[in-house]
Amino acid sequence: MTSSLKSQRRILIKLSGEALGGATQFGIEPEILSAMARNIIDIKNRNVQVALVIGGGNIFRGAALQKAGMDRTVGDHMGMLATVINGLAMRDELIRQGSECVLMSAQGIDSITTQYQAQAGREILERGAVLICAGGTGSPFFTTDTAAVLRAVELHCDEVLKGTKVDGVYSADPFKDPNATLYKALTYKEVLQKELEVMDLTAFALARDHGMNIRVFNMTKEGALLNAAAGGDEGTLIS
Ligand code: UDP
Description:
By secondary structure, this protein is an alpha/beta fold. Helix content is 39%, strand content 18%. The chain contains 9 helices and 9 strands. It starts with 8 loop residues before the first strand and ends with a strand. It binds uridine-5'-diphosphate.
């Protein structure tokens, strides 16, 4: 198998840690974990290859730990380990629901995960297993949004799906401005010119430089993830 061989649509879903925490945004809510795994299996059953980058904000964030007095680098290491904890929970749930799943981590934690490796990751996706990429980029001072774009580029994904609490990218914050309008499609340049919030700038610049499409959609809307994953006209597409 060559590194560029890809027989199906291949997507990367960025799942924030907060989403796993449910109403409290802390820890892992079993029902949410289970529903998320069901959605992922549904996507796979529609012949779409699925990679997942999981955040860790439901457990630790380096910036918050720094505010409490901790060294930022150590805080970020704790944040990255939090993403591994979430990855372990998601792998367990996917396997319990009957899906093959491999958890790779940017940090080699041999006894519990596999060291992330792009070519091995592509082969895992090609054989139809879900690939969870945990541990962020492996470096402090980055976010899992950057990890999501980075892994999507490395794994030759067609699109990054970024779930939010609203229907996509708006002209203003829809929670604060009743006149905010939803964009169906934007270019990278328009996002920067209009100063729209999509992802942090490092993640966004990486997507722009490598032409990685980003689709922002409503994670809480029934069927939206499935539609976005299948290539439907969901949320906002940035390309
Ligand atoms: N993190 C990091 N480098 C990375 C990705 C994540 O240091 O490449 C740390 C950082 O402290 C971050 C935490 O891990 O706050 C959890 O990730 P993130 O905040 O992106 O999670 P999410 O908001 O998606 O739950």
